[in-house]
Amino acid sequence: MDRTTTGAAVTAQVSPAAAGRADRATTGAPAPKTTADAGARGDPDPLRTAAARVLHTNWTGASTVPSRGLYPHQWSWDSAFIAIGLRHLSPLRAQVELETLLRAQWADGRVPHIVFNPSVPLDAYFPSPDFWRSATAGRAAGAPGGVQTSGIVQPPVHALAAWLVHLADPGLSRARSFLARVHPRLAAWHRFLLHRRDLGGAGLAAVVHPWEQGMDNSPCWDVPLSRVPPARPRTFRRADLDHGCPRDRPTDLDYGRYVRLATDYRDRGYGAADRGPHEHRGDFAVEDPAFNALLIASEHALARITGELGVAATARHERAERLTRVLVERLWDPASGIFRCRDLRAGPAEGAPVAERGITGLVPLLLPGLPGDVVAALVRTACGPHFELGGRTRLVPSHDLLSPAFDARRYWRGPAWINTNWLFERGLRLHGERARADALRTALLDVASASGFSEYVDPYTGRGFGTRGFSWSAALALDLHLDADHASAHHTAGSCGSERARHD
């Protein structure tokens, strides 16, 4: 892809300082640290005030860090989720959030999973810019010269975020030509995934590292990762343990495998020579249902963006519908009522399904084109013994409660996350499961505020783990709280066992 199309900077028509002024105008004075503090001071909307404080604190002037300590740079899918919440406080700042991320896009279309802040010391986070070496190792793939990034990607939520941000203030969006400027970058990003990452040859995008899928430490990766020899322990230093309890974080063995995979991918030039199915030579390649569902949802959003720009969008809608059919044909497991990951480096030429059940297999509920029987089965699975939504769990856990690998507090091996529950709530609401969606929304808001907008929580108790004041937890709680589509939220959920899924 021509660098002038995808690698050049997105020129914002507003300075970061102006965006900061606009944000202060909408959020007001610094807010109390918790909703309880805000309520004690007589704040009429304590959740909004506390969430706004988190997003204000983590704002750098042009983007929002997930947290100041543990994650001091800009993360790709974090910024998409953050923009969705920011649109309720400052549509301008939400637009700048996405524009800043897309400024780091590579010429081949990929949006890197981390954009590094040069003012942050190298030892504050690992892997740091000197590990990724994007300007040199990524040169053949078109890494930008003016900013340091990682070389892998994260789930493509960005077109969905851009469309929702546009809807928050269409007048401002049109005045700034926001959609016209981000559209070519988003289209190039999707082309990269649909062509360069179709490693299985069936049309779905594959991830080449657990960090790309976003649910880094999921037991779904245990078997695919077992083939990867770990990096030697003394060849890297885990900065995450400076801010997080080792009991809650990935093990050293798993982390060593993550480092080995990233090192190998970097040393092959970040896949610059890969051109089609089966050309990626790495040890890890997985077709993941959540990653592809988010790509399909963003294809639908990109079609709406195209239509807003006055261009026919039929072909893009048709592509999204075709990808939905492929997702069902390739990853749906009717016997267990869930979508499965496909390990492309296992079994026969087409790969083999992964046995573990993760929330990644429930996320496709957010797609509008799912067959009715698939929708009904996903709802039964979420409410059944493996996830217990509406039963013993307050939120949908990240992994199967009955799996020997389940751990209620270790990173992505069981805790509930606000973003995956936000996605599942959208899916329930889309398919007519209003009572269940309302109940989940209420639980999400309660848990997010009571936990201090924690990074992740115990799915049974709601106790927070990881870092607090986590940006996407605050942003998505804000979205659920302020979005008019959720105004009638306080209803009692029906029985999971007796109520059949309804769909539009």
UniProtKB/TrEMBL annotation:
Q: Does the keyword Hydrolase apply?
A: yes
Q: Which UniProt keywords apply?
A: Glycosidase, Hydrolase
Low complexity composition bias: which ranges? 8-39
Q: Where are the transmembrane segments?
A: none
Q: Where is this region: Disordered?
A: 1-46
User: One MF term from GO for this chain?
Assistant: Glc3Man9GlcNAc2 oligosaccharide glucosidase activity
Q: Please cite one Gene Ontology biological process associated with this protein.
A: protein N-linked glycosylation
Q: Does the keyword Electron transport apply?
A: no
All copies of the Mannosylglycerate hydrolase MGH1-like glycoside hydrolase domain together span 71-473
The UniProt family comment states:
Belongs to the glycosyl hydrolase 63 family.
The protein's name in its UniProt record:
Mannosylglycerate hydrolase MGH1-like glycoside hydrolase domain-containing protein
Q: Which organism is it from?
A: Streptomyces spectabilis
Q: Which classification does the entry list for the species?
A: Bacteria, Bacillati, Actinomycetota, Actinomycetes, Kitasatosporales
